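QUALITY CONTROL LOG
STEP: pairwise intake check
CHECKER ROLE: data steward
CRITERIA: each record must contain a sequence immediately followed by its structure tokens, with no blank fields

ENTRY 1 OF 2
RESULT FIELD BELOW
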Amino acid sequence: DHHDPAALAAVANRLFERSDSIAATSIEDGFAKLRALDCDTHALVMGSLYLAGEVLRLSGITPE
């Protein structure tokens, strides 16, 4: 099962009192959207620990 990415972006907007969250349908889509922004920004990964670990691995970040 999975949740609709647009619905999760709406949740993030409400939680962080923002209106500019961007939904991604895959890890690759998320990275592409971040690169397209061409700015220093943060990313919120909403999903399983597996998903978060895969994003960290592909980013070259080792959790401490």
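ENTRY 2 OF 2
RESULT FIELD BELOW
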Amino acid sequence: MLEARAHHQLKALLQREGGGQWPHHLSLSRLVARSLRRADHTLVRLVPGTEPSWWISLLVPLALGDEPIALVLNERSRLRLQQVELPRLADAGLALACFEGPHPPPQARVWVLSHRQLVEAWREGRLADRQLVIPEAEGLEAELRQALEVVIKPEHWDQLRRAQPSAEASLLSLHERLSRQLLSRPRNPQRQVALAPEDEAPLRHLLQLLTPLPDPWPSWLAAQGPNWTSWARVNPQLLQWDLHRQPLEPSLVLQGLLENRGCLLVGQIGAGESSCPPLGLQPTVQVELGDPPLADPLPLYAPLRQPLPNSPHFGEHLLEQGRRLVLGQAGFSVILLDDDALRLNLTSGLAAEFGSRVVHQSTAPESNGVVSASWSWWLAHQQRLPLPAQVIVGLLPLATLEDPLTAAQVHQLRQQGRDWFRERLLPDGLTQLQLGVAGLRRSGGRLAILDGRLRGRSWGQQVLSALEPWVALGRLLPH
């Protein structure tokens, strides 16, 4: 039986390497082997911050099984597979042959796909009966949304006019009208401007009368309905813009992907009613593999009376508290907030005080350096950086309604009469917070939260509960 073989091989591999510290290697291996053998739908939830050593427990059953598999990886995971895990399997005498490319031969058992390649293969019927294995599934929805995105660039308008010369005057008129609308509207720091369906309606009506259409116009025309939203990314210097269109819920666009097909998802996905499985998965088996209770709680510095982010004094508060937290800190510090202007001002203020120790989104800090970064940058790069001695949260990672995609998702939930903040924004923010401070659990460092909403809003207690176990720091002591 595959479960027994995988258990035996993994146990021997871990003993040869000196034993893995993660306590669930053998449990995950058995779950993966069982899912492959039964071709069922399995969801394995790892607690946020789990070390990536769990990968070997996923791959050993894949190397020993006979089932055709589509292994769906983002670029970071693909590099880890190639550079770390496959050599590790080879040293243990386990060969995992992985085919990469759009058209695998029939004998290729494990087909490695990006999320965009997965969408294309499914639409073209090239997946056949392959089971899906998707590690790091906490980012699956966002990856699939990017894979399904349709982008119209300035050169696509030129191609369309050349393909349909009879409609050139109408197309030029529509493009000019959209340009005036987009360049005159206020935009967020990412230079994004939301587009309503009525803004796109004249262009859509015209395209429905024109055939044939060059790519990607047919895809843009097909991407319609209440599950899709559009925005433009504006370049005011060049007076140009790109048109973006993405689905709010990728699972609705990819209905049928999981029918008559085994699927295994493994990811750092928080449990609870508000945390739904990606892809609308209805798992036959759902298991949470947590870490053992921590002996030492996380030191948390979060003063009771702090200004709210919309206060005119909030920037001064961040700079004053940032100085106190960095002063006397001998280890590596990270400051996290998503407001670009606020972050750059804070970085320059701290650099004036502490010099070259303070850098902005750099993967080569000094040993006692201070890296100021957005949450997305830190989550993408933290494995390339040393474990932090302290993490300073300037702003909690709650999505802003200035983002057109977030605003469209919130609007949809409002129309359904649902609590958009506690169903969407807060759970996503808590997951990012747990992932962002996971290194502190291993380094024994401290966490500081300078966002006044932690103590000033009713939902702040949920944030504190997500950080358990923690112990309050009443005053700062040098480390």
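INTAKE CHECK: passed for both entries
DESCRIPTIVE NOTE, ENTRY 2: The chain has 19 helices and 18 strands.
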